[in-house]
User: Fold this.
Amino acid sequence: MISTSSPGKTIRLSKIIDPDDGRAVVVAADHGFMLGPIRGVVDLEKTLERVVKGRPDAILVSPGQAMRLNHFFRRKDSPALLVRADWTNAFRDKTYTLPARRIKRVAVANAKEAIALGASGIVTYFFIGQSDEEAEARDFELMTFFARECRELGLPLIVEALPMGERVTGANFADLDAAGMRIAAETGADALKVLYTGDTDSFERAVRAAGIPILVLGGAKAKTVRDSLEIAKEAIDAGAVGVVYGRQVVQAEDPSEFVGAVRALVHEGKSIGEVVGGVKGPVRLQVIASDCTNCRLCEAICTFTHDGFFSPSRARLRVDVVSINRFIPYPCTLCGHCVKSCPVGALIFNAKLGYVELIEEKCNGCKECVPACPFNIVGFDEEKNKPFICDMCKGSPKCAEWCQPVALKAVPYTREGT
Amino acid sequence: MPIEREELGASIMPIIMGKAIRLGQLMNAEDERAIIFEADEGSMLGPTPGLSNLPEAVSMVKDKVDGVVLSSGQVERSVEHLRGKGAPALLIRADWTNAFRDETYFLPTRKVRHVLNLEPKDAVALGASALAAFLLVGYDDDEDEARNLETVATLARESEKFGLPLLVECIPIGERITEMNYLDCAKLATRMAVEAGADIIATPYTGSAATFREIVDASKTPVLMLDRRIDAGSLLKAVEESLKAGATGAVVGRSVHRAADPLTQLTALHGLVHRSE
Assistant:
């Protein structure tokens, strides 16, 4: 539970950062205000309908959209409303139709107005690194104005502290990032929305020095979904409480699925492999036996992934040598015999991600599942007193990923396919 | 597009009810479209032909338009034409700019300026159904664009408190605007206005129904076609295309009062927008 000196702030912040695990998934959807109707936000209502289904903790919109799209924020389980309280031209780069020649920033709503709109917090920028020091000072001044007002009203102030402007270089980026974070914290920000510094060490230092909850912008510098999730994961491991995703969510093919995946990563502590698998949907393993060369890399990578070392005897699949040049890999087919054989219900079929899941706490080590497997691929770990069960690497099977001749292929899971 | 009761939160009900009622006054009840007549040019350009006798001009158009934009100082002189349920709704110009003093004007603009000239509560006191303001993009100095946006946002926040709708006329103007970037700049300006809190948008015709539709689709608030860059002869065609693209109506000024026969022009426009004949 994050608590502040103000009960109003504490209560409102708890709608943004889940007090159960201290984590948050925030979606930024204020792009139209700064850049016009870019892809993904042309029909913001339609996009948000899908975003909301992924259950983000909070959504950031401009005051005009907060008024218009108020209905998304009305229920107890709705995302919290964050109102963008300022506007800037800073993101109109050289490639933009009307590039910014000078970074400008103005207030567009005050804390009182945001409260009237039903906001759980406001978000404002703080830029550090502009060539004009006067501009940075004015930015700072505006931030103090918001901070004082928010303090008075018990409204959380989330400052988006960004290295921005001509004086930002690759060399000073991490330092500027950390400085912006600390300056905002000292001014009265209750949480920060920041860019990743680039490495765990410097980010960890910056987070510690700021001393307030940090939300990291996952997608800002990433080229792929995986990259952005890596950044988010690293930042969280380094102490961030959560993530803010903007374009990558609103421009995703399925925004709700994307938000759901980020939730799994942030709130459920899932690995990126699991989450990216989740993005793709459930899979099954297809065998093309004629292509198998008996290299056994599948067995090796399987045990390495699950146990951290190479030990083919522990592999969750096996390769049969039929003749000198004919081999058959036997991976899990999701037939369900093991699930049925389990007397204590420790094996369940995860229909969403399409794999058999072993609930270790329930397993009593009876070994019923071992002979139940028609392919003889359920082994038993005598040390741990638990069976080896293929979990499809939680949606992204490594055996298929590493199989060079492509005798094993991860294909979308369908009922007919099993 | 009337604002549905159930679409809006109980907490903002009082504000919105006012906006809903006043927005209703701006639109034709039958088809929810609007023709707004801009008669405030004098505050920016002096006594221009067609509007030099303002009360007369208002009197002439009053049966054919759904709303009239006036500067605050002119309301009193035209008030007799604005009374009654059937009279056009009053929109009051909340700002002033020299942006329209082009090269042909006797005192051309050297630097585009934009200032606020009243507060929403002044407009309420004058009996306004809505406020009208400009959002210009293409300023030479980014500072000016930021200030203009700030002004619009301030008006939006203030007028929310009074339940007063805000019409924002979004206009790409100035040396940085070219034929190449005109559409994108119009899209930027209109969306900025929507996100700042405008209730109705007006923007110049972009040359085709397809491009105008891009603006309508990205706004999701009523969009009116503005007759800037359009002469009397091409007005009807542009309005027709805009309506096809989903426009809610038109904001007209010069293309009507400078037409050879303003009343005939208005009648034709009325027929087109409201399909009355």
